[in-house]
Amino acid sequence: MIEKAFYGSKKYWIWVAFLLAFLGVCFHFYLLQLREGLTITGMSRNVSWGLYIAQFTYLVGVAASAVMLVIPYYLHHYKAFSRMMILGEFMAIAAVSMCMLFIFVDLGQPMRVMNVILYPQLHSVMFWDMSVLSGYLVLNLLIGWTTLEAERKDAPPPSWVKPLIYLSVVWAISIHTVTAFLYAGLPGRPYWLSAIMAARFLAGAFCSGPAILLLLVFFVQKFVKYRVGDEAIKALSKIVAYAMSANVFFLLLEIFTAFYSRIPDDMNAFRYLFVGLDGHTALVPAMWVSAGLSIVSLALLIPPQFRDNTKLLTIALVSLVVATWIDKGFSLIAAGFVPNPFDRVSVYLPTFPEVMIALGVYTIGLLILTILWKVALSVKEKSIA
Amino acid sequence: MDIDKRKFLKLVGVSGALWVGSRLAGGLSSVFNIRDRFDKQALADAGYEVGTMVPDPGELKAKQWAMAIDVRQFKTPEDYTRCIQACDKIHNIPDITTQQDIKWIWEEPYSAAFPEQHNQYMEAALKSTPILLLCNQCEFPPCVRVCPTGATFKRQDGIVMMDYHRCIGCRYCMAACPYGSRSFNFKDPRPYIKKIDPAYPTRTKGVVEKCDFCAERLDQGLMPACVEASKGALIFGDLRDPDSDVRKVLSTNFSIRRKPELGTQPNVFYIL
Amino acid sequence: MYNSGKIITGLVLFLGVVTMPFWFNIGKADVKPDPSLDTPVIRQMKVKHCIESKQFMIDNHMELLNAWRNAVVRNNKTIYVSTAGQYFTMSLEDTCFHCHSNEKQFCDQCHTYANIQPYCWECHVKPVEEAANGHR
Question: Pick from A136, A138, A115, A139: which is nearest to A127 by CA?
Fold first, then answer.
């Protein structure tokens, strides 16, 4: 089946070549980081995690969001998603791969990464996160590839896939829950120390993941004859609308608890993000953009007449992705370290090489996605014809 | 992971057997032990098996090491720098002046050391007093809990130790430490070390480091460097021993700890 | 044969790639490593011996050092009881380098030959080379 990735139009090859060329540029910056160390990033003693770990967190959500297709399709036999399933599963594979790469590029001693397996520490959430992420990658590869293979042969998928699919539902929830536990179990980081963290993560994942999937589908449909179907798009955008509402609701719950109790530790990070703390206002504009775009996306997603209009839906989804990315893909990590244990504010902003390395990982993800979707769409278009 | 002891003994035994004979015939040379400071008689009395690795008979032992910092005794800037420099020098701490700096023991104003136990009306002298900070060697250390490789772990004597050979540099421990006691080597520290002491390794880029109560000195029977340099202002001893110096000062003076509400049970106490 | 041009080009490329190490090293003399034991401390020894037999050290020094580092760092054991019943501080700096103060002639010879790069030196301080030449 993989051979389908080696036959493509000129546009396909130009796209792949462009990705590879850009990857080469980014790789140069990773070599710089290998040589000089993480000093080339904007991270510091006080803000010791940054863009890389934030992208990891965001992408775990994207990976987990495949479950928003799996549950309706396999558990409720909602057939409209049949033409979307494989795209979601393959997107999850690309997302998990990026998660692992983001952890890898964040390591100070990447050549020792196997120590996590050689000396497993069952009390470390990071060990469990690595385990569930690897498991999820394998599950999605197995399920996606086998069902697609079956479709190509015009046969029903083998029966052993079913239990794996049910397992993948629980597993998807677990990857984002465990990722939330990475943060939510730390004393002395009040912004993260919240029981609602995993729920917030899942809500954020279930809106941003399908939103990205829909946007990618809209984009790809410009180049291929394959159509996922209007009903699938409508159903998925409805899911996005509910999940985004929950996401914003959970955020407001956090804000209420912090500001009605007036406990400084709980308020500080929100203050830093939305009004600035001790004169540090670097992230304030971005946060208000995020808040504004969240409102725009909800305003366009909740009324059905707006949501069912492809143009408005696209605007809503783009707003949503940007809004959730600022919240979860950046400020969640940067603000978690503010104020530091000495009650001081350390501003973190990524450096140019750091951004390039992050873009490099995204490029690898796009490459994986391109190849997998090329295979999937080739098989699908053939089985239709 | 320890080398498998039986395998090791076998290796030593086979290749060592012939050699032992030849060496005994040649007479014992004292050259080897020039730099070895331990008590050989005590080791001989212990009757250890050959091919084994054993503790120094002179090591300082405790169930839980702890330190009391008598803030009242720190009067001049020299009182602080003496302790800090003693540590920096023997541990090859680099002098990096950016936000990516390395600290084992350092000073902060009272308001930064105890942000929760600080108010604007308190005694001016105390407010301006710098406080020495170092790793609290918590009884329930969050850094150890989160470390995915066991690179940071708790010794039997309560010291929270770093294994720089194993650290992968994920910095989870830095996120977990509520005291800001951990530093990451964002870059090669060597160019920033004024004078490298060859007796103690430097660190390499990409690993996390912190104070370890001079575990290497305790293992050789020496007190921590800062304690030695402090002229009695730092009191060090076994917290589980009611007759230890540290217990004596704690039972007769008012002391506080940093962020006690987090339940980590710090083993560094401050006498104000 | 179909596509013979492509197949032959591919085969030639493949052969070129797999034989790369030979092309790279062609004409380079294969000098056997000869680690030097000539240091001031060793010179003074009546009987030249390491902490264990020479053959054992050649075969197992890496395992021994690995066991040492774990014992010292993780199990606060600092003394090694040798086969001959002698005691040594388990320390690169204090014990190994005391005699082998010529890292370039002693360690690097074989390591370079075997093309391995132990990262000991990233943290552990190399012995001062002058000592090996008797300038201490």
Answer: A115
**Residue to test with chain B: of C48, C122, C126, C130, most B Cβ within 10 A:** C122
CATH 3.30.70.20 at B65-271, yes or no: yes
Domain boundaries of chain C, sorted by first residue: 31-132
Whether B183 has its CB under 8 Å from any CB of chain A: the answer is yes
Q: What is the DSSP letter of A75?
A: I
DSSP state of B136: -
Give the C-alpha separation, C117 to B164, whole Å. 18
Q: In this structure, what token pair is assigned to residue C70?
A: 């774990």
Cα dihedral C88, C94, C95, C98 sign:
negative
| Strand extents, DSSP E, chain B | 52-54, 65-70, 106-109, 130-133, 152-154, 160-162, 183-184, 208-209, 234-238, 255-256, 268-271
Domain span at residue A285 reads: 2-384
Q: What is the pLDDT of residues A256-312, one digit of tens each?
A: 999 999 999 999 999 999 999 989 998 999 999 999 999 999 999 999 999 999 999
B170 contact residues in A (CB cutoff 8 A): 103, 106-108, 126
Q: How many domains does chain A have?
A: 1
Cα–Cα distance measured from residue A129 to residue B140, given in angstroms and rounded to the nearest whole number: 22
- The kind and range of the H/E element at C87 are strand C87-89
Tell me the per-residue pLDDT of B51-108, one tens digit each, with 9 for 90 and over.
889 999 889 999 999 999 999 999 899 999 999 999 999 999 999 999 999 999 999 9
Name the residue among A121, A187, A343 with its Cβ closest to that of B149. Answer: A121
- Find the CATH number of the domain harbouring A320: 1.20.1630.10
Give the per-residue pLDDT at B20: 46
Q: Give the separation between CA B102 and CA A45, rounded to whole angstroms.
A: 8
ipTM score of complex:
0.92
* Cα A241 from Cα A39, distance rounded (Å): 41
- Best B6, B9, B15 member to test C by mutation, with max C CBs in 10 Å, is B15
Specify which residues B21 forms β-bridges with.
none
Of B186, B225, B191, residue with least CA distance to B209: B186
Pairwise CB contact (< 8 Å): B147 & A107: no
Which residue from A48, A34, C118, A357 is spatially nearest to B187, judged by alpha carbons?
A: A34
- Are B94 and B103 contacting, i.e. CB atoms less than 8 angstroms apart? no
